[in-house]
Amino acid sequence: MIISSVKINNFKSLINIEINTLKSVNLLYGYNNSGKSNILKFLEIVFKKKSFEQFAQSNISGSSDTITRRSVIETTDFHRGEIYDYPFYFFQNGWNSGDTIDFEIELDVTKEEVATVPYLLENSLYIVKDKIPVIITGRFLPKTYDTFEMGLTRVILDGNTIQTFNGQSTILFPTVKGARSEAELDNFLRLFNDMVLLIDSDRYFQDEKFGFESGIELNSKTLKRWYYELSLDFEQNDYFKDIQAFINGFDIQDEANENFNNLPFKGDISVKKLAENIEVFLKTGTMNLPVKNFGTGIQQIFYILTKIFSSRAKIILVEEFELNLSKRYQIEFLSYLKDYFQKSGKQLIFTSHSPYITEKTGIIDSHYEVSISKKGITSITSEERGESGHKDWIINQ
Predict the structure, then answer these.
(1) What is the pLDDT of residue 301?
(2) Do the beta carbons of residue 197 and residue 307 sit within 8 Å?
(3) Three-class SS of residue 150?
(4) What is the reported pLDDT for 386?
(5) CA distance readout (Å), 70 to 51, 75, 81, 89, 388
(6) The pLDDT of residue 124
(7) CA geometry: angle 360, 202, 48, nearest 5 deg
(8) Largest CA distance in the chain
(9) How far apart are CA 389 and CA 13, in angstroms?
(10) Contact (CB, 8 A) for 272 and 289
(11) What is the pLDDT, as a whole number, of residue 42?
(12) How far is residue 249 from each of residues 69, 129, 333, measured CA to CA in Å?
């Protein structure tokens, strides 16, 4: 599954953005604060599972003050529900202007990915196709300055509309013969729940106190406890070995090995108590050293690989890919990921400020320059190369 094109209107600085011809490995390049991260964040918000919450006021004991308590009423699929605690999501914070945030996302889904959907299996046409195009059109409606609700306005599967909204009600399968239910539509749309993983630029580790905690969500501040929990779970032993093999697969090319004798991904990953803290150990040469003993570049690579392998997401978004990586490591790591994404059928979309990466056209499939006007409006310029290798730039704004 990959995203092939994106259209976004009115989200932050993305007033009228269109990105076409997205492929396996995609670069968004530009200066700071040009809107690159807004694109990644928007994609994460769209495909993240939603919820409906309720708020209640209660008195604080011994005081005239009140406190607002919130609770989740229902956790929902990505295509319906509300997004909370996300202020300034409209351009110039114009959430009460009467405008909406609109989008259209086109994806290519494989026949293996739709094999569990009965409605699709009934049509043998989908079985023989390697890629099935899906277009999802939707809208965010503002509720408050930091809350908005998402809904779909149209879903098109291989040219057939399977959902449309006429302004008053939702019509299901209007171009498909035979009665179809909302349950069938939901079953199909669940393919896209949490299909996007955003790895943001907060990738710095911290000390983590020793202790056991089940169900830890993996991030840069919980990575050591996450590995500790995994190492204790006997039923996850094979998974632990698989993630080690995936991380150990990253290697510097032979001609550069003499300069990288201390590359740590050459053996078992272990977790130990070190004083009052939990520490992850990586093997380098004949020694096992705490991950904090390695440079921040190595820590970045270790974290990104862990996040990619541990997620079920098919589309990986990485903010500031080059963070703390030398030029050589930028290219070696990107080459390793390109091979992985091509073989797995997944997709990588990353942002960067590194001009060195933009020169490596043999690694990057699609390259987009992101800039911002004095009025704070983002524009996208896509690079296309002809047979001569000459760069042609197409502006999407």
Answers:
(1) 92
(2) yes
(3) strand
(4) 39
(5) 12, 14, 16, 21, 60
(6) 46
(7) 90
(8) 77
(9) 32
(10) no
(11) 94
(12) 47, 32, 11
Residue 93: which of 12, 182, 7 has the closest Cα?
A: 12
CA atoms of 192 and 129, how far apart (whole Å): 19
Question: Which residue shows structure tokens 């909370």?
Answer: 84
Low-confidence ranges of the chain (pLDDT < 50): 124-125, 254-258, 385-395, 397
Say which DSSP state 396 is in.
Answer: E
Q: Answer whether 318's CB lies under 8 Å from 304's CB.
A: yes
**What is the pLDDT at residue 104?**
96
Helix axes 237-248 and 223-232, enclosed angle (nearest 10) = 130
| Predicted local confidence at residue 23, as pLDDT | 93
Please give the Cα distance from 301 to 247 (Å, whole number): 9
> pTM for the complete prediction?
0.87
How far is residue 222's CA from residue 188's CA, in Å, rounded to a whole number?
33
pLDDT of residue 61: 66
Closest CA to 269 of 311, 224, 207, 236: 224
**Which CA distances in Å does 82 have to 78, 89, 99, 151, 299?**
10, 13, 17, 9, 35
* Angle subtended at Cα 206 by Cα 201 and Cα 209, rounded to the nearest 5 degrees: 145
Q: At what angle do helices 237-248 and 296-310 cross, to 10 degrees?
A: 130
For tokens 């990644």, the residue is 40
What stretch of H or E contains 42? Answer: helix 36-47
Region at 270 (left for phi over 0; alpha for psi -120 to 50; beta for the rest): beta
Q: At what angle do helices 296-310 and 223-232 cross, to 10 degrees?
A: 50
Question: What confidence score (pLDDT) does residue 390 get?
Answer: 39
Residue ranges per structural domain of the chain: 204-312
In contact, 149 and 82? CB cutoff 8 Å: yes
Distance CA 35, CA 379 (A): 8
Residue labelled with tokens 């043999």: 362
